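Escalated from tier 1: beta-D-glucopyranose holo job.
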Amino acid sequence: MSKLKKHHGFGIDIGGSGIKGAPVDLEKGRFSEDRLRLVTPQPSTPEAVAKVVGEILDHFGWDAPFGCTFPAVVQHGVVQTAANVDPAWIGVDAHELMKSVTGRKALVVNDADAAGVAEVEFGAAKGHSGVVLISTLGTGIGSALVIDGKLVPNTELGHLEIDGFDAETRAADSAREREGLSWEEWGARLTRYFQTVENLLWPDLIVFGGGVSKKADRWLPYVETRTPMTPAALLNDAGIIGAALLAHG
Ligand code: BGC
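Tier 2 regenerated the structure:
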């Protein structure tokens, strides 16, 4: 069976509205079966979320170790922050939780870190050496910093303080929606954000992801940076693929 093949892994992406999972062909960098999406339980407490993760694994009959993303700082498996998730997660050892609830060993990592690793391995930053920043624009702003192919985990650049604000509250896609910003207005916010980031890190390439990256032709012309910017290639699949890859080691 495909799931037992040496080059197959399994990834799960935990988000605010959906929890998605699929077996991944780690050589090709793509799903080996259609993914399954289940609704994130509300409240999204650790136990309730882990149960849904277990249901996804059961659905595919996956009994081996798996990778899992989480939209917060996850330091060696321990969730340290909860900017856009249930605060009950803070301090939870997600490795222990997943093991006890699903019965399988898990590697739990930050969502943007997983997406970044996938983009470097298989997507828009494939083959790039030097300093690559992957930035996900969604409810929050996620960041992954990869240097010569090696991830610096949990960079959290969405929470830089810019003009007295937590940057993601002004420049995330959710801020554009909430404030009804035009593409041009949002582009100006992104310019302020990315110029701050590039003045601190001097990346060689910025890859941007999130649902809104599909509409980059509308807003990218309004974003001014010295660093080349390119849309993510794996889009919604990146988190799952990256988590599976990281878990496989
Ligand atoms: C969180 C990050 C996460 C990002 C995208 C931020 O609010 O602090 O850990 O990667 O949102 O989900």
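The longest helix spans residues 183-201.
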